[in-house]
Amino acid sequence: MNTLMLCVFYVIFLRVYEIQCKSHPKPSCGYPPSQWCRSLEIAIECGVWKQCMELNATRPDPVVPPVEITLYYESLCPGCRAFLTEQLFPTWTLLKGIMKVNLVPFGNAKELPEDNSFSCQHGEPECYANMVEACVLYAANHAAFPVIYCMESSADVLKSAKPCLQLYAPFVKWQTIESCTRGELGHSLMHQNAVKMQVLKPAHTHVPWITFNGECTSEWEDKAMSTLFTLVCNLYKGIKPPVCTGALKKLDRSFC
Q: How far apart, in Å, are the Cα atoms of 131 and each of 23, 71, 186?
């Protein structure tokens, strides 16, 4: 398993383990862990108000802008899929407080205005998958990235689209995505992505193509491919979160 993904699971385990140790033997509060810090009332009911206060105290300064990463990619491109699933999504999972991710599914595709269609490097299935992901980004909003990660990390990107949507964005009906891909909206979204590719400076020469705060350099790209987590931490101008500084290593690991 990818080292960064192992790190994600390890950090989540430590946080849950710490909370369980300090709150034991209090009974379950009926809320999933992801909701424990949503409000003071829930935190008190779940017996984790102290941990939630500590977490809030280490949140990034809202005045400092996040590191904005835009990934220009193709849905069936092996290199794009590897970067999205092994670097971008795990890093975002740990650092979503200090980074913003934009996804542009188009890559080396060509817009064919005379045919009112598109031509893609990996054929018609990729054109359709690109449009599905564009429609997911439009309809699912904040839940879109997990849906697309689910699709890109599966054995079959297209076959996994519906179950991934149902799992991570159940508020969006699959019929909505199908309607988008068959109608004018899907075509319009793909045209917008084509324009985004055309105005890149410097012009893209390959995919995945990655920009940081609107800029692309070969040095950043090289680092992003293997150590995106470290790069985002270094590029962030505000006070580094504990996960960047290594403070999470100081968590109490004593047994309950």
A: 46, 16, 6
Domains of the chain: 3-59+241-250 (no CATH), 67-235 (3.40.30.10)
CA angle 96, 98, 87 (to 5 degrees): 55
Give the C-alpha separation, 117 to 114, whole Å: 8
Joined together, the tokens standing for residue 203 give 């012009």
Q: What is the spatial distance between Cα 158 and Cα 126, in angstroms, rounded to a whole number?
A: 9
Query: Are 1 and 19 within 8 A, CB to CB?
Result: no
Alpha-carbon span 253 to 256, nearest angstrom: 9
For 1-55, the pLDDT digits (tens) are 555 655 555 454 445 444 444 433 344 577 777 677 767 677 778 887 666 665 6
Q: What is the pLDDT of residue 133?
A: 98
Indicate the pTM of the whole model: 0.77
- Residue 26's pLDDT is 41
